[in-house]
Structures are given as C-alpha cells and as structure tokens.
Recover the amino acids of this structure.
C-alpha cells in the first residue's frame, strides 16, 4: 500500500498525502477502476455463459446465446471511456500574425522551464485558461492556452504577463493532469 500511495502522491504532484488533490485523485482512480472491473467482469461472465451454452439444445438456448452476445457487446462498448473530440474554443493564433505575443509567451514559458503551448486560441470569454488536447486520460496530451479577447482590452502589458505567468504555473504544477481522471469518473 505504501508503494501505491507514493505513486499516487507523485501522480497528483503533492507532497502532502492529506491534500485534497491527493484525495480526489485517489477517489477518481478507485471509482474508475471499480467501474471498469465491474463492467468488464459482467461482460466476461456474459461471454462465458454465451460460449458455454449449447445453442443446438433448443430455441431458448439459442435465444440465451444471442442475448448474452448482444449484452456482452453493449456492456463492453459502454464500459470503455468515451473519446472526446477537441472543440476549438475560438480562433487559432498563428506565430507569424502575432509575433510579439508569442515572444512574450515563449519568454514566460522559459522562465518556468516549460515548453510553449502547442496551440493558442483567442476566445470571446473574459478569461485565460489552460487545457489539454489529444492523448488518453491526460497521457500524451498537448498543452493549449485559451486567451479571452476582452482580457487584452483591460489589462496592461505587465498585468497580461502576470496572468500568463499564472497560466504557466498551472502547467508547471501539473494541475491539469488530475482533471481528465475526474472528468472520466464523473462521465462514466
């Protein structure tokens, strides 16, 4: 148990085992694991019954084999986590069109020891946010920043730098790594 606890603490990137992030990560992983075991176990039992039943013995046995096959396929398909398509939140910003903004983002990313985000989008929200695109359950995903157009109207350049620094602090703290697990657990 101590080995798994250390791994989960390392995954949640908190040194304190009593932190809420650790508790949410542990709960999400446990619920998702239990859901998968229950769903795949039920599908396995249905497949076993369907394969072990002799359908030539009568019409009810043939119907039982068909029911088990269909139920096994439906449960197996619904147990697997759904793939989410990335919905483009706004207009994609291109480095050639906004060189000064990208220079600022590159500079702030290097201060935090992070790679610049793979994509930056301009939205109509009064918000600056981070998310991940691609990958599975947060693994292999690329970082994306969404910048709200109204933010550019009421922030000074130094304030915008501070907001971008706070955004990269989220990337550095890996706060976005727990959310795919929580979202998949909630949606399952």
């Amino acid at each position: 148990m101590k080995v798994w606890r250390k791994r989960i603490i390392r995954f949640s990137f908190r040194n304190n085992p009593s932190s809420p992030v650790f508790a949410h990560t542990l709960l999400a992983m446990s619920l998702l694991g239990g859901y998968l075991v229950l769903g795949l176990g039920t599908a396995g039992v249905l497949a076993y019954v369907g394969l072990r039943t002799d359908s030539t013995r009568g019409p009810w046995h043939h119907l039982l084999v068909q029911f088990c096959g269909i139920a096994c396929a439906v449960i197996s398909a619904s147990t697997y986590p759904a793939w989410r398509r990335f919905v483009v939140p706004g207009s994609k910003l291109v480095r050639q069109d906004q060189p000064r903004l990208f220079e600022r983002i590159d500079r702030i990313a290097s201060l935090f020891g992070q790679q610049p985000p793979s994509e930056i989008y301009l939205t109509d929200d009064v918000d600056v946010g981070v998310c991940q695109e691609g990958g599975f359950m947060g693994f292999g995903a690329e970082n994306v920043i969404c910048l709200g157009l109204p933010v550019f109207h009421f922030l000074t350049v130094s304030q915008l730098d501070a907001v971008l620094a706070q955004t990269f602090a989220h990337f550095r703290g890996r706060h976005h790594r727990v959310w795919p697990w929580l979202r998949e657990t909630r949606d399952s």
Remarks:
- The first helix runs from residue 2 to 12.
